[in-house]
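Notes to self after the Tuesday call (sharing in case useful).
The group wants a holo model before anyone commits to mutagenesis around the pocket. I volunteered. Ligand is hypoxanthine. Logging inputs and output together so the record is complete.
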Amino acid sequence: MSKEQPSPKIAAARLKQLSRLRPTLAIILGSGFHHVLSALDEDARISYAKLPGFPPVGVSGHAGELFIGRLGGVPVMVLSGRAHFYEGHPMALVTFAVRVLAAYGIKDVLLTNAAGGAARSFRPGDFMVLTDHINLMGTNPLRGAPVAGLPRFVDMTRAYDVKLIELLRKAGRECGIKVRSGVYMAVCGPSYETPAEVRAFTKLGADAIGMSTVPEAVVARQCGMNVAGVSCITNLAAGRSGQALSHAEVLETAERVKVLAAQMLKNFAKLYARGK
Ligand code: HPA
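Result:
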């Protein structure tokens, strides 16, 4: 971690003062998933700006707020908004919130994101549960000085927890979603890919392509948390349709499926509590 980052324990202690609830599940919201906040029975919320070391993010809606509450009756922590590597932040800042979650006592993290569909069968509006990832961001969030007490060389053989994957699939099925599974490839961005890149990435094994999640998953695994991930396929990856890509399309699809996405997360929280 970079020297400028404060200890994650400081923000974690602040969060413990905020609410008496002690969730073990945290959900990080990406595009397409924010609507779940309307289903959250909120106990406390805090702006990232008040949490030492948290990144400055977003200006719209609830971006840059952390919530503690109950989802489907189950205590959860929900992080609305994340810092992206393409914004120019160092990886230590992009992944800082994940270290705070670990310091707080979170055991299981669900990472959500918007992604382009590279697999031929994927359609905009689909949901893909991550079974694995490919890091093509050009760097690794664990690069740099070792973190005391944590492994230097982190095993990523089973980065995404098998039990949580099954719960996600079930959560989707319960609201009528035909949940896809696949490999998420993380690129730096912020430009979208070229069609040639998408063809190459597909050959490498990518089913969906996005600009987040992987750094958080790597750090969460280093901290010993179980990780799950789900992508909202907001668009066909470049060259997969005749059309140009636009951020407007990403937002449009996210808006179209937001109710389903929220329902899936709520079902997931309930199944999670039952499985404990
Ligand atoms: N590529 C990369 N990131 C994305 C995409 C995409 O097509 N859609 C949403 N995030």
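Two things stood out.
The two ends are 32 Å apart (CA to CA).
Residues 8-275 form a domain with the Rossmann fold fold (CATH 3.40.50.1580).
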